[in-house]
Hints:
By secondary structure, the chain is α/β, with parallel strands linked by helices. The chain has one domain (5-269, 325-379): Luciferase-like domain (TIM Barrel), CATH 3.20.20. It contains 14 helices and eleven strands. Helix 2 (73-83) runs parallel beside helix 3 and helix 5 (198-207) crosses helix 6. The longest helix has 17 residues, at 219-235. It starts with a strand and ends with a helix.
Amino acid sequence: xxxxxxxxxxxVVVSRPTADAFTRSNYLSAVAAGVDSFWVPDHLNSLFPRxxxxxxxxxxxxxxxxxxxxxxxxxxxxxxxxxxxxxRLRLGIGVTDSGRRNPAVTAQAAATLHLLTKGRAIxxxxxxxxxxxxPYGVDWSKPVARFEEAMATIRALWDSKGExxxxxxxxxxxxxxxxxxxPYRGTWPQIWIAAHGPRMLRAVGRYADAYFPAFPHRxxxxxxxxxxxxxxxxxxxxxxxxxxxxxxxxVIAGRTRDDVxxxxxxxxxxxxxxxxxxxxxARHGAQHPLGKGFSGAxxxxxxxFDEQSALEHAACVPVSLLKEVLVTGxxxxxxxxxxxxxxxxxxxxxxxxxxxLQTSLRKGLAASGPFLKALRKLKKL
Length: 381
């Protein structure tokens, strides 16, 4: 099938010898692979337990001082746009919080990047997670309602044409607010929304240019949710075909399947499963180590785990579950698994290579080869 597009996501964690060494290397690899876009997340800290970030559990800890040393995303994208004159990839936030950042500031940041990059900015946005909000004094009691109001605020400011804006809102009221940044050649950044629950899926149908979930799920789950989004778009008077079906996929790559299986047994990689909701554990005859019904990434507070607790929790994550929700294997395996998602409606896949989190630094770095090979093959889907 022609027209399938591919992006690469980077964790923007401070590294050695320079703070952006990992990110710049991944950006140049993305350019070399011929992908369409480059993405960075918006986190104040990691979703992985910080107590597992040591050379004993992850070889990459030898190259990065802290897994929680996450750099500010809009600054990083501006830096990449200014420093790299080759490739001209589209640049996206995957994704920003609708609560922690005031939507007027988000609207300004995205519009600025769009102007400076001549129309290459993408605003990925969602409710965010508890770990990036509650510890910093942001109310986490109504994240979806806050998200809906943030989206309405951003659209109101972008559509204001420089006129004063007044809008009632329980979260973000506007009182003679002014937004006078111009669109780039009549266009604002595309809005890609990360969503899973029914109410958020309806919001995608109303507001989004693309559906962009990032939490792990099966291909069949994606197809079901995409159908709900298209119904919501129709109900909102929109053409469902105007919403691009995209997805962020986390990848464990290797030259052989044995290398991949070894990586999946690593404590930090296993701990990725703590960000998967309990409903997925049940299919594998297990229960989430943080309790029945635990929602995963939305509510996890990984900075609170001591090392022993983190190791015990990670050991409870079935490897079979990781293989279900991650994209794993050799380059051909990766292509086959992404193609399965394409057959369920995905037209744009953004891949994040988390293989370097494994115990072996050598194998983690060597996995960049198979990952790059997979990216090149995916461009031909």
